[in-house]
Amino acid sequence: MISEEFKSNKLLGFLIPNIVVLAIVGVNKALNSDSSGVLVYSQFVILPILLGIISAWFWRDLALKTKTILGYSLINSFIAILLSYVFLREGVICLIIVSPLIFVFVITGAFIGKMMFKKKNQTLNVSIVSLLLIAFISDSISDHNYENMVADEIVINASPAKIWKNVVAFEKIEQPNNYWLFKIGMPSPMATTVTDYKLGAGRKCIFSNGYVFDEKIVTFDVNKDLTFDIVAQPQDPEIMGHIDIQRGQFLLKDNGNGTTTLTGNSWYKLKVFPIWYYDVWAESITRNVHLRVMDHIKELSEK
Amino acid sequence: MIFSFVVKRLGFIKSIPLTALIFDSGLKLWLFISKSEKLDWFDDLEEEILNWNGVTISLHKFGGTQFNYGKHEIGHLHSNGILDILFDKKTKAELIATGKAKAHHVFNNSGWISFYIEKKDDLPDAISLLRMRYDKIVSKTMITSKALLQEFPIFDATL
Question: Is A242 helix (H, G, I), strand (E, B) or coil?
Answer without folding.
Answer: helix
